[in-house]
Design a protein that fits this description.
The chain is mostly helical and 139 residues long. The protein is built from four helices and two strands; from the N terminus they run ββαααα. The protein has one domain. The mean pLDDT is 88. This is DUF4118 domain-containing protein.
């Protein structure tokens, strides 16, 4: 039986080392993109990480996306929040940024998981209709 794919993109088995490696690589690429954005003057700490969390959740599943989100939080706190390249006490604005990213990441991971499940259903041939509807009364 063929594994479910989403528009030609192969899926990775959740909880596998490949899924977590993909999460790490995508977060690292997003960090490089975020570094370029910071060098150009952008102050949006998590802008490059939100799409990457969704992509990892879509391709590798919720566990790898959760790992990516937590890794992104630690990476942004260490590398992109002043003082740079050290952990320090968070200001209230920085804590709010982290909380907002975490909330958005939870929503994106849930959406990606729903998309994965929908792709699996579609690849199996769709939902199977039952002979009787639950809403009908057979009296």
């Amino acid at each position: 039986m063929r594994r479910a794919e989403l528009f030609g993109v192969p899926r990775v088995r959740p909880w596998s080392w490949q899924a977590f490696l993909l999460g790490f690589v995508v977060v690292a690429a997003s960090a490089a993109l975020q570094g370029v954005c910071v060098a150009l003057g952008a102050k949006l700490y998590f802008a490059a990480f939100l799409p990457s969390i969704f992509v990892v959740g879509l391709v590798a599943g919720a566990p790898a996306a959760t790992f990516g989100a937590l890794l992104a939080i630690a990476l942004v706190w260490w590398a992109f929040m002043p003082p740079f390249f050290q952990f320090s006490a968070l200001t209230s604005a920085d804590a709010d940024s982290i909380n907002l990213f975490f909330l958005l990441a939870v929503f994106l991971i849930g959406l990606a998981d729903l998309c994965r499940k929908t792709a699996a259903i579609v690849s199996r041939g769709g939902l199977q209709s039952s002979s009787e509807s639950a809403a009908t009364n057979p009296q």
